[in-house]
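Hi team, as promised in this morning's meeting, here are the two structures we talked about. I've kept the exact order from the run log so nobody has to guess. The first one is mostly here for context; it's the second one we should focus on when we meet again. Sequence first, then the predicted structure tokens.
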Amino acid sequence: MQHLHLFSLLLAACAAFLAGAINSVAGGGTMVTFPTLMFLGLPPIVANATSTVAIWPGSLGSIWGFRQELGRTDRTLRALVIPSLLGGGIGAYLLRHTASATFEHMVPFLIFFATALFMVQGGIQRRLAGANKEAAHGIGGKLGLALACQLLIGIYGGYFGAGVSIVMLSALSAFGQTDILEMSALTSLFSLCINGVAVLVFVAAGLVDWPYVLAMALCAVAGGILAAGIARRIGRPAVRRFVITVGLTMTVVFVLRQWVWHAM
């Protein structure tokens, strides 16, 4: 049994290393770590919480990397930190009070939704690149609507979170932002807030499997640092295709798993 446990920790650590590399290039590392933890036998809610806590430290590196761009962003938009924190807490609270069986039924739909976001990511980025050719303009009188949208995004991020950065990029574009680097800096900041609050809720609720977290957190950071160069050489499109393939495969696997479970 001890050898089996060590193998599980090693497999989770490898998944986290891969997730760290994916997050440094295309995002979507959760699509690797969450299904891996479920296949290793963790209950779905615990797997989701453990994955969030394990990968969260890697987001600190993103903030550091975008520190110059973050300093150039519209100060008004930084107010979206508030609904990010609030939404992340609400989403984590909802997850905490979702029955494990209910969440397990939702897993295929959540994974498919996140995968669909990655499938349209290329079109979103092309649209943003085209917008960058035009003059940037501020958020104007849309701050109230932006706060409300970010609250909803934060709730989704705290509840499940895969693909949340893509949603935030789309929202920022809709509210007049055009500099993709500054937008990426803001999404890194908001993700740090959303997941940071969620981490506190998950830890306080006892939803975290700490042996997995300790093994995965170090490997996620190492993956972001060491494997990022390899991932970049492979190319962002190839990494995105890998994430999409994993997402679609996991959707089918979890749907079939539920059908078999109900048939028994």
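And here is the second protein, the one for discussion:
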Amino acid sequence: MSKLSGKVALITGSGRGIGRALALKLAGDGASIVVSDLDETPAEETAKEIRDAGGKAVTCIGNITAPDFGDRLVKTGLEAFGGLDIIVNNAGYTLDGVIQKMSDDQFQTMLDVHVVAPFRILRAAAEPIRMFAKKEAAEGREVFRKVVNVSSMAGTNGNAGQVNYSSAKAAMVGMTKTLSKEWGRFKVNVNCVAFGFIQTRLTTSYDDPASKITIEGKEVQAGVPGSALAALPVMVPLGRAGTPDEAAGGIYLFCIPESDYVSGQVLLVGGGISI
């Protein structure tokens, strides 16, 4: 039997990049997937790829910052598959600038995307998780559930030009450690993965058209300076950026039964970067 057979996983930002790679990986191990993304086309493509391979997947489309999105995401998983076992808060983007040039809106946007949205999703999941856990305990069963929050080494170590993003990602560490204490009695493992340089739209050069992303009709400049990419062989002990599949592997470790006694931890996935 596959390790995740019968499990239901909600993954935000799973139409592209790391989220997509994770959705395919978990589905390949037996999980039913709620593919969530801002854009319908990539979400449907990911879900179709899962179904074509014999897996189960549905989509939940929309902006994670919408006040009702958390409730809608959790409801989608419950109605489609009747369960709620894995939640991965992965969706996000960057909106860089040095502090003296950063607007209130620029700062608040990153908090809304990377902190408030995951908070609402986990809050929406709290009561269903409590009810499932209560029923399982009454039956004498110990069933573990998984929450994986995606942070960044910008959040654990800081990064010049990203005071908004770094602050938000640091907050995810605090959220993780707090929920690991609150939800331990429900047999929920709550952990965090902090990424370094991973090959996604967020880490392409500013000069690459792919670094410009569209959020509800508004073009946003993501990406990094070309000089930062040129320095990767020196900065990263493994000598290169990670792939989305490699990044997804870090999250996967916290989703499988082998991590049932691991909670409240932050795993750095950065090719050996430690400062």
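Starting points for discussion:
DSSP finds nine helices and nine strands in the chain.
The mean pLDDT is 94.
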